[in-house]
């Protein structure tokens, strides 16, 4: 395999609207001399708890049971780990996405790869992502990995060995920094954190809580993604022209595809004489394919801005009539959280976490209805429709665990929370039920 070269560039501090202090702090976090301060986790089995371990500069006594657990998890073959090696978050996101694509495409038979990451306990935005490789192929990957690391600098690579005492150690395959030249670290088990560590990186990376945070991401990548400038111009134009006065109720319909949202929104539109909007708005349609191909950080920022554009449209329409909205912030957040948090439903942020809080600067709806149907009925409807599905919708079909996490994330969002409605009955019965909800909660 090969690593794509992403040319490093200086951070565009002059264009950012905040202090450079957080950027410098993050750089300090990523100084690789502090590897032994970090905790690592590897998702060998998405249905069980991750394996957590730390690194020590000196051999440490480890119990037989713990060594046995490490040995079972690491498995056979030659062992390696790759860690994205970039300070700039746009460059880091792209490097990680390219590395993942190339590993999946180019690894030889007999070599498998699982996602791993490291973090500083309780330190937000400290997660560094990478991959753990188990090589049982005929030819060792070490030479190829080391060569690519030297050529591109896109990642740092380590190999793992087990000594005569059963202890695991790791050593960098190659280092350009003399002070770190091939230091050996000993692998020691680490305690599981109270919360899944991916939670440290969700806020304003996977889910955005202020328009300026999402905007900043597109500003930072505007040199490499020209469409970013066009999107920002649309945002500036529409939000500048927007004025808001208290108007008619705003009803949002949420749910997975094939739960009946389209049918119900059209019916409510006619029954209430309401305006009908969709999120993301049509003005972003020309850019969706481009941003859907980008790493999550950039893709999520794009869709976050779509919510603010939808809010601007809601403000205008609600001055004249009730507004029905097909998806809004709940969808953006639920899918992002379920994707960012790997593994089990238990790994999701706890109910009541600030991650489920509505953005303070985003217009709130009057009522949010979450439509649900059982998985078998939803699949039947999807097959009947025969429409193309997004990558995430495809994941929903084949991955029950992901579907459960999306559903649970929907239910944990608060202020406003979703009102869950079973959409399995006939459409007219569902319409009657939702109209009763709207009349009781919105006064229509």
From TrEMBL:
The EC number(s) this enzyme carries:
2.7.4.14, 2.7.4.9
**Thymidylate kinase-like domain span:** 253-429
Reactions listed under catalytic activity: dTMP + ATP = dTDP + ADP; dCMP + ATP = dCDP + ADP; CMP + ATP = CDP + ADP
Q: Where in the cell is it found?
A: Mitochondrion
Mind listing the UniProt keywords for this protein, alphabetically? Answer: ATP-binding, Coiled coil, Kinase, Mitochondrion, Nucleotide biosynthesis, Nucleotide-binding, Pyrimidine biosynthesis, Transferase, Transit peptide
| Principal location | mitochondrion
**Cellular component terms, GO, for this chain's entry?**
mitochondrion
Q: List the Pfam families.
A: Thymidylate_kin
* Keyword presence, Endoplasmic reticulum: no
PANTHER family for the chain: THYMIDYLATE KINASE, UMP-CMP KINASE 2, MITOCHONDRIAL
Q: What is this protein called?
A: UMP-CMP kinase 2, mitochondrial
Classification from the root reads: Eukaryota, Metazoa, Chordata, Craniata, Vertebrata
